[in-house]
Design a protein that fits this description.
The protein is α+β, with helices and mostly antiparallel strands. It has 10 helices and 13 strands.
């Protein structure tokens, strides 16, 4: 009976601890920022109710990106209204994927946050693992959001964004067309948003289960255009393996249009809908990806001193060390002898501090002073 009671108490304690550990994230949107004042209570969702209100495709994308909490709030600035949605993700990679899905060609940079994009009615701001979506609105200056960004920045994750984004060439790139994905849902959405939905089936061959990452962007030059896809893999061996899968999975129409797969160590590149093979190669040549091989083994160089000089220094400093050690030993020993002569039995070898073990073979008691 007593054992059953203890088991019940332990179960209750575990439930309480679980409920405390599963406490919902803290609300982050402020009551006011800049000239904008809250016009409604915050709407906050996390846990099982997190994806209520999102469409099926958007829910799938947000789950893949690792959404943890969503809050929404309306603000007013005189007669102007502004709706702010704040998405909190597990890490900055998921936030970057979601941010790129919310941008579109024709947007302009707002110059705030880590990245931002605005048009006349909507906007998005990336801040670590947070994504701020704004709109629709009629009048909004990105500068009025600086207080909001400042208040949220200390609460955002400081981990770096995916390195793959730095490989995209800036030359000829259409702002707002960048799309990042580390899963099949994000990849299919990215391909469709750039007008390449016919090739979204390649998501099965990309190898996201092998920790592959993908990024796309549209390029428009003076003499042509194309959509660049970069795929990065953990190792060159995986890149080579999936290169063959992608080559076999490319539709015949794509191959006829000049779509090819090229590999540079762990990076694969494809250019869809290229105006010409020359323009596709020109886009590839702008990719900011270089491999470095380093060799850290020490070796003898021309700047090293001759071996004779090295040996002389070794003997010199060894002799110096031995000389110093000998001098210190003599000084210590001499000082001890002088003190014993001047103050016998008072500083060193005092009789009360000396203990002698004796076998007891004779009845004579040993006097420790006899040893000195």
């Amino acid at each position: 009976m007593r054992t059953r009671t203890l088991v019940c108490l332990l179960a209750v304690l575990l439930r309480v601890c679980a409920s405390v550990g599963a406490a919902e994230p803290t609300r982050l949107l402020p009551d006011q920022f800049g000239p904008w004042i809250s016009a409604s209570a915050v709407s906050f969702r996390s846990g099982p109710a997190l994806y209520q209100g999102f469409g099926e495709q958007q829910s799938a994308n947000l789950k893949e990106a690792g959404l943890r909490a969503f809050e929404e709030r309306s603000y007013k600035n005189g007669n102007d209204d502004l709706k702010v949605g704040l998405y909190s993700f597990k890490d900055s990679s998921g936030a970057f994927e979601s941010y790129t899905q919310s941008t579109a060609e024709g947007m302009q940079s707002g110059g705030i946050g880590d990245e931002s994009a605005f048009d006349s009615h909507n906007g998005a701001v990336l801040l670590g693992n947070l994504v701020i979506r704004l709109g629709p609105f009629s009048h909004l200056s990105p500068a009025t959001l600086s207080d909001l960004v400042t208040s949220l920045r200390p609460k955002a994750d400081k981990t770096p964004f995916p390195e793959l984004k730095s490989y995209l060439p800036e030359h000829w790139r259409v702002f707002g067309s960048e799309k990042y994905a580390f899963g099949p849902n994000g990849f299919r959405s990215a391909m469709s948003s750039l007008g390449q939905g016919d090739f979204s089936g390649l998501a099965k061959e990309v190898g996201f289960e092998s920790e592959a990452e993908a990024i796309l962007a549209r390029y428009q030059g003076e003499h042509g255009s194309g959509v660049l896809l970069l795929l990065e893999y953990p190792t060159p061996q995986l890149a080579e393996q999936h290169l063959r899968h992608l080559q076999q999975a490319l539709p015949a129409a794509a191959k006829k249009a000049g779509v090819t797969v090229e590999r540079k160590t762990s990076l694969l590149s494809l250019v869809f809908a290229p105006t010409s093979p020359l323009h596709a190669q020109a886009i590839r040549d702008e990719v900011n990806y270089e491999t470095q091989v380093t060799w850290n083994e020490s070796s003898h160089t021309a700047t090293d001193p001759p071996i004779v000089v090295i040996m002389v220094k070794i003997f010199l400093f060894t002799g110096l060390f031995l000389g110093v050690a000998t001098a210190v030993g003599i000084a210590f020993g001499g000082l001890r002898v002088i003190i014993k002569r001047l103050f016998p039995g008072k500083v060193f070898d005092r009789p009360q501090d000396i203990e002698v073990l004796q076998l007891g073979l004779s009845g004579k008691k040993i006097d420790p002073s006899d040893m000195y």
